What does this fold into?
Amino acid sequence: MAAMNAKQKYHAMTRDLMWDPKDFDMKKVYPMLEKEGIILKDPSRWEDPFRMAYNQYVKVQAEKDLLYHAVRRSFEANDGHAKVIDSRWYEGVKAFAVAVQPAEYAAHRLMAYVGRNIPIEAIRFATFNQAIDELRHAQIEIKHYAHMSREIDGLHAYAQTNENLWFNTVPKSFFDDALSSGPFEALMAISFSFEYVFTNILFLPFASSAGAVGDENFVAVGKSVQSDESRHMALGMSAMKMLLEEDDRNVPIIQKWLDKWYWRAYRIFSVISTLVDYYPRIRPISWKKAFEIYVEDQVFDGLFKDLRKYGIRLPLHAEDSIKEKEHYSHAVMRILDHYKHANAFRGFRLQPDDYEWLANEYPDTFDHYYAPFFRRMDDHVLAVASPGLPAVCSVCQVPAEFPDPNNPTKMWTQYSEYNNKTYMTCSPGCKHIFEQEPHKYMQFWWPAEAYLSGEFGENIPGDLFPYFGFTPEEANEHYSSREHVRWLEHRKHLGLDRIIVNS
Amino acid sequence: METKQAYVGMDLDTSGGEVVEAIIEAIKQDNKDVIVEDYMVYKKVKAPKQLVLRRETVEDILGGDWEIDRIHIYMSSYFGFVKEWDEDQLIIHWENEE
It folds into this structure.
C-alpha cells in the first residue's frame, strides 16, 4: 500500500469515527444542536486546515514542553528573578497569574463542552486537542507561580485567591457566560473573539516585554503557550467560515455573536493593556500600537474585509475600542491604583522615565488627563485609594470607571432598567450586551452585595484578607513594599548592587 | 481604513534560531513585497494578500531535509485563512479580490 499523504492521513484518522445514533433520537443525544438556530447542511465538508493527527500532536507538544522546562530550570537555578531590571515587573506577572490561569482552565472545560455538543468529527478532534492544550497551559503557569511564590508575595494561597479575589470575577464571568451559551456561540466566543482577535496581544507584546526586562522564564511561558494558539485560531476561523457558508440564515446569528463577543473579549483584555504599557520598565511596544497591528490591521482591515462577502460587518462597538486605545491602559491603571490596597498585585509609583515614555507614546492624552492622577501618589502611595468596594459593571465586572473617549473628563458609565431595578454598565458596548440578555446578567455577583450579606466576614476590611488568601502587607504599592526590599537584598547577596554601568 | 493594504502573515518565535531565519528567507524568496518586523522575541513576516512557504526553498537554505509540519513549533500566530497545507507548501491568503 502506498504511503498516505498528510491530507489522506488526516481524513483516515479523524473521519468516520463516530456513528449516528439509531436507537435514540439524535436530538436527545445532542440536545443543544438546534437550540441556537444554526443550520448545518453538510458539516462533513468542514476540515481543520492544520490536519493534525494524534501522534503528531503528541510529538510536537512534547518538544514544546521540553523546551519550556529547560528554560525554566535554568532560570530557577541561576537566580533569574533577581536579575530582571525592575522587580515591579512581577506585580504584572501576578496580574497575569490571577487572571489568565483560571481562564486557561475554564477554556479547557469549554472546549470539552463544544466537542461534546457538536457532532462533527473534525471539530471534535480540534476541540479535544485544544482542551488538552489549555490544561497544559494552566499547569505550566501554576508551575511557574509555585517557584515564583518563594520570592514574591500574593500567590502562596493561590487556589484560595483564585476562588475568592474580587478581581477574578472578570475572567470568571467571561468564561461562565461562554459556558452557559450554546455550543456554537461558545465556539465563536472563545475560538474566534478570544483566540483569533486578542490572544496575540496577550502573549506576543507581553512576551516581548518579558524579554526586554530580562524575565526569560516568562518569555518561555508566553511563547510555549502562544505556540498552541495558531491551532486555536485555525479552529475559530474555519468554524466561522463553515457556519457562514452552510446557510444564509446563520449570518445574522453569527453577526450578533461577533457584536457581543468582540466587546466581551476586548474588555477582559483591559488589564492586559496595563501589562503592556505600565508594569514593564522597558516596553518594546505600546498598547495603542499593538492594538493597531493586531486588531485594526490584521482583523478589521484584513479578516473583516474578507467576511464582507457573507454580509458580515465590523462588530458594533469596534469604533469605540479604536477611540479608547488612547485611554485604555491609563484608565485601567487608574482603576487598579484605586483598589491596590485590596488586590493581590500591587500598583506602583511611576518613575521619571515612565512619565516620559507614556507622554511620548500618548501625546494627546497622557499628560493632560492621566499624569496628574499618578503624580498624586508621589507624596503618598495611598493618596488615590478609593474607600470601600468598587461598583463593577454588570457585564464585564471591571469597576465601572472608564472615561468616555469622546469626553474624557466624564465617565462612560451607562444605566439600564430591568425588573424595576437599575443596572450599571461600564460602556455602551457592555450596555448593549446587558440589554440583549438582561435576565442572564442580572444574576451576576456584586462585590458590594457580597459584602453586605457577610460573605467577606464580619469585620471589614480585616476579614477580607484571610478570605482572599493574602495579607495586607502583600497588597498596595510596590516600591515601598517588603517584596521590593527582599529583591534588593537578593541582588546584594549576588553582588549585583555593585555593578556600575559607565556611561 | 478602506485604502489600507490587507496583509497575511505569521509571527515566528525567534528562539527557533537558524531554522526560523531560513523560513523567513524562504518566504522572502517565494513572495513579493514581503515585510519583516522585529519584535525581539518574535518576528512578524507578512505579504500582501497571499503568502506561500515552500519546503524545498527552506531545505535549500538549510542545506538539509526539513518537514513543513515543524512550523508548528515556531509559528506563534498567523493571520489570513490557511488555503493549502501539505507536505510541500503552506499557503495563507485572504479571499477577497478587492
Observations:
- The helical segments of chain B are 17-30, 55-62, 71-74.
- Residues 17-30 of chain B form the longest helix (14 residues).
- Chain B touches chain A through 33 residues (CB under 8 Å).
- The domain at 7-93 of chain B is CATH 3.90.56.10 (Phenol Hydroxylase P2 Protein).
